[in-house]
Amino acid sequence: MHTCRALIVVLSSLSIAACATTMDRTPSGPPAYREGFAAGCDSGYSAAGNIYYRFNKDPQRAISDAMYASGWNDGFAVCKGKYDNIVRSPY
C-alpha cells in the first residue's frame, strides 16, 4: 500500500512538472539568453526522460551566439537536475 501511495505522488509530481510552461521557468536576461534557456530546459527535461518535451537546440546559433549557448547550457543543467530529483524522490 505504501508503494502505491509513493507511486501516485511521483506520477502526480511528474504531471505537474509536465504542465509548466517554459516561460514560467525562464529567468530574466537578454532575449538570446532567455531563448537559449528555454530551449535548453526543454532539452534537459527530455534528456532526463520526460516524454512531454523534445530535444531543442539550434546548433548554428549555439556556435555564433554566446548568450544563446550560455542560456542553453544553464537551462539544460537546471531542468535536467530538477526532473532527475523528482524521479529519484522517494515520495
Describe the overall structure.
The protein is mainly alpha-helical and 91 residues long. It has one domain. It has 5 helices and no strands. It has helices at 2-19, 22-25, 31-48, 59-64, 66-88. Helix 3 packs parallel to helix 5. The longest helix is centred in the C-terminal third of the chain and has 23 residues, at 66-88. The protein is elongated and about 40 Å long. The model is unreliable at 1-19 (pLDDT under 50).
In short:
The protein is built from five helices and no strands.
Blueprint of the fold:
Elements: H1 2-19, H2 22-25, H3 31-48, H4 59-64, H5 66-88
Helix pairs in contact: 3-5
Q: Please give the domain count.
A: 1
Radius of gyration: 15 Å
Q: Which overall shape is indicated by the principal axes computed on the Cα atoms?
A: elongated
Overall mean pLDDT stands at 80
Distance between the termini: 13 Å
User: Which class best fits the helix and strand makeup?
Assistant: mainly alpha
Strand content: under 5%
What is the strand tally?
0
Relevant terms:
mainly alpha; elongated; 91 residues; 5 helices; 76% helix
